[in-house]
Amino acid sequence: MTTSDSTDPALSPEHIERIKKNMEQVEQLSKRLMDVLAQKKSHPPSLDGPNQELFARAATAYWSEMAKNPAKLLEKQVSYWGQAVVNFAEAQSLLAKSLDGDGAEDTAPSSPSDRRFVNPMWQSNPYFHFIKQQYLTNAEAIRNAVAEVEDIDDIDKRRLGYFADQIVQMMAPTNFLATNPDALEKAVETEGQSLIKGLENLVADLEANDGELVVRLADESAFEIGRNIATTPGEVVFRNEMMELIQYRPTTETVHETPIVLFPPWINKFYILDLKAQNSLIKWVTEQGYTLFVVSWLNPSAEHADLGLEDYVEKGYLSAIETAKSICKVKQVNAVGYCIAGTTLSLTLSLLKQRGDTSIKSATFFTALTDFSDQGEFTPFLQNDFIDGIEEEITNNGLLRSYIMARTFSFLRSNDLVYGPAIRSYMMGETPPAFDLLYWNGDGANLPGRMAMQYLRGLCQRNEFVRDGFELMGHTLHVRDVTVPVMAITCETDHIARWKDCYRGVQQMGSRSKTFVVAQSGHIAGIVNPPTRNKYGHYTNTDLKVDADTWREGATFNEGSWWPRWESWLKKRSGKQVPARDPGDSQHPPLTPAPGDYVRVKARGQASD
């Protein structure tokens, strides 16, 4: 049959019609793409990468070292050339075997831990095999070159390593259609529909974020706040311009006299602790017989640019504590702070100590930093060039837009949170998964400009809270003023608030009663770890005078969740049993059912559906 035969399905009227429709769709999507990119708001260039002087200093240091030792450079080059020749020879061998009909073999070690290269074609196809092996060779060469750079300070070297690694991840062959066998196979299988759907996904993501490329991680249509996530019953019993205070309904006939007031981070929404009934810390706490209040923070817009940490303390922490005390008719509460809210809880405790206010009976910290002397993986983002860019962004917009924070956190795990999802969505044309955790992760919040700069300059960069003191509300606040009984829950693989850094901060607190726990897993999974799952254990050690490594060596491993251990600790500080309390009272009537209104406000200022 010739290609001109009218019965050839490739030239059938139906096929031609599909091609025409595909081209029309591409044309329409291209126009939408151009329109949204034309309306994109600009942001400071320094937020896209470091000052170019960093690379210039690194290159100068590298070539200076090589000039002193040219034999070393030659050795590296010969090694690289040799490996490239080996890669080509392997590809030739695979090609010869496939032409001889012997079938292809895996002639090089596979990368089972690298999920990017699981398609068999990376091993069996000469083209893809060579591309993969050469990419891995190049990646190793770049990382080795960075490791061998001398005569630059430790911070610059860590930054150089981070940005070099980002280049390595970005240039992976899986990120390009012509070198991604999964995407190519899907395109052939679907007659190009996967690519059109992928372009639709790309345009939709750009339109949803004012021209900024923020990869959608979850199918947002699968979730509704208050319907299938954040469903624990309760009432908003107080509201001001900073927050809504939710009091959850009791599930026991009696409760402990001392209530709990929980402060979640305002970088994200509080319902990470109430995603669904099976893993809801909020629900679990009420089931243990406690009166629980949880703060739901305002999602700021440009009009809130002047809100500072003092506003979060005064109108957030202190207002919530006073409201809880009034409703429960008690003089003290047990406070909990998660992440940045734990950092701010420690500031609040120092302030109350200096004021002689004993409203907080005990404090629990979830993955909360107070000592920022080691900036860890955030080192690249806490230097002046990047922070100056954030300050410029704030000057222009009044706040730190949520996508900048989301992008920063995502690129710390770029394969999992950027490139992998982008490939599935834009190349494969797949709908993002219906995953509640990823839905929450994409439901970010803006940060008021003033508060963001106080936090970044005073706490993160200058580490004032543990050095000379952090000036706030007419007081000089210091970590040593945290003197109430404290329990700190940290997470073993947390890359945001590393457990060793949290440990160092707890050590400097002035409390004579300190309990420190290291839970298995990371920043979220280590905290959201219900006892029923029995998935992750935790480490304990009562000796907090030793350094972090010694503490870990002497720690006891405990099977199961840390939640019951925390509840046992909390019970001793929560007073007698009293009749269960319904939300609110005559002075604080319920305003709206949980989860309230503030949590529904999206970062762009629109209410969620």
Please tell me about this protein's structure.
- An eleven-stranded mixed sheet has the order 15-14-13-12-7-6-4-5-2-1-17, sandwiched between helices. A two-stranded antiparallel ribbon has the order 3-16. Strands 8-9 form a two-stranded antiparallel ribbon.
- Strand 4 (260-263), helix 9 and strand 5 form a beta-alpha-beta unit.
- 44% of the residues lie in helices and 12% in strands.
- Helix 12 runs antiparallel to helix 16.
- It has 609 residues and is α/β, with parallel strands linked by helices.
- The model is unreliable at 1-7, 104-111 and 605-609 (pLDDT under 50).
- It is globular and about 85 Å long.
- It has two domains: 49-101 and 116-175; 234-600, 3-Layer(aba) Sandwich (Rossmann fold), CATH 3.40.50.1820.
Report a brief summary of the structure.
The chain is α/β, with parallel strands linked by helices and 609 residues long. The protein contains 19 helices and 17 strands.
Architecture blueprint of SSEs:
Blueprint: H1 13-38, H2 53-68, H3 70-100, H4 121-124, H5 126-147, H6 154-170, H7 181-189, H8 193-208, E1 234-239, E2 243-248, E3 254-256, E4 260-263, H9 281-287, E5 292-297, H10 309-328, E6 333-338, H11 340-355, E7 360-366, H12 384-397, E8 399-400, H13 402-411, H14 414-427, H15 436-442, E9 447-448, H16 449-461, E10 470-472, E11 475-477, E12 486-491, H17 499-507, E13 514-519, E14 538-540, H18 548-553, E15 556-558, H19 563-571, E16 577-579, E17 592-593
Parallel strand pairs: 4-5, 4-6, 6-7, 7-12, 12-13
Antiparallel strand pairs: 1-2, 1-17, 2-5, 3-16, 8-9, 10-11, 13-14, 14-15
Helix pairs in contact: 1-8, 2-3, 3-5, 5-6, 8-14, 10-11, 12-16
